[in-house]
Design brief:
Helix content is 76%, strand content 4%. A two-stranded antiparallel sheet has the order 1-2. Helix 1 packs parallel to helix 4. The protein contains seven helices and four strands; from the N terminus they run αααββαβαβαα. The radius of gyration is 27 Å and the shape is elongated. It has one domain.
């Protein structure tokens, strides 16, 4: 049944949100760690001459990242390279999740369209082929319920809007991660969201990349709730509960 396919794909997409949020949280954490490491490298670089003249300095009393002085410069480069690779892997995972969302949305659309076409064909056939049952004239009742169709369309609308937003988010995320330390694209996404919530327009304040990344996991959850609030109807909730 088409409604079951649409409901199943809706639930599968909803489950994908946990993976998306987890990846965004990990990217935020790694970016913060990289910032700290880069700042430590800058500080230790400034004091390298002093350290070279005091090889017996008590490094055990330095903060942990100050211990970078005890290692060759290549060690810091390896740390940064590993952070870059980890973030790239998380971005690939986000991209796969977005593609899976798109695939599931397409499957749900096809199931709904097929059911609608079948219903139209059955309606035409019933209109042209009436039959007698117990002396009474009846039409074959095979057309899809209007309530079911309405519920399916509402679920599809939620998935479609969230899919478009996720595409925009991932593009903005890639652009800003490639051009730190400001989050120009992500700031625009967040500003549009908060202006919608407050019911008024506002100028886009450019956030630091770390600040924008910290807001993204909660922002994804809120966007999902916004999509449902905008499109869900009673018939859709009944489908999900059935």
């Amino acid at each position: 049944m088409a409604a079951l396919v649409v409901v199943q794909r809706f639930r599968e997409c909803q489950n994908l949100l946990d993976t998306i949020v987890a990846n965004l949280t990990a990217i935020s954490n790694l970016t913060s760690q990289r910032t700290v490491v880069e700042e430590a490298i800058r500080r230790t670089g400034c004091s390298a001459a002093y350290a070279a003249a005091n090889d017996n300095a008590l490094r055990c009393c330095a903060d942990p990242l100050g211990m970078l002085l005890a290692f060759p410069e290549s060690a810091a480069e390896l740390i940064i390279a590993q952070h870059t690779e980890d973030v790239s892997a998380l971005l690939r995972s986000l991209g796969k999740s977005q593609q899976m969302w798109c695939s599931k949305l397409q499957q749900a659309k096809e199931a709904s369209q097929q059911r609608q076409q079948e219903g139209t064909s059955m309606t035409k056939a019933a209109a042209s082929a009436l039959f007698q049952v117990g002396g009474k004239e009846c039409k074959e009742k095979s057309t899809p319920s209007p309530q079911v169709m309405l519920g399916m369309h509402a679920l599809l609308a939620v998935l479609a809007q969230m899919h478009g937003w996720l595409q925009e988010l991932i593009l903005a995320l890639r652009a800003d991660l490639a051009n730190p330390p400001r989050a120009v694209q992500l700031s625009q996404c967040l500003t549009r969201y908060f202006s919608q919530m407050e019911g008024a327009g506002c100028c886009a304040a450019i956030l630091p990349l770390e600040t924008a990344l910290e807001q993204l996991p909660e922002r994804v959850q809120r966007e999902w709730e916004v999509c449902k609030a905008r499109h869900m109807v009673d018939e859709a909730w009944i489908l999900l509960a059935s």
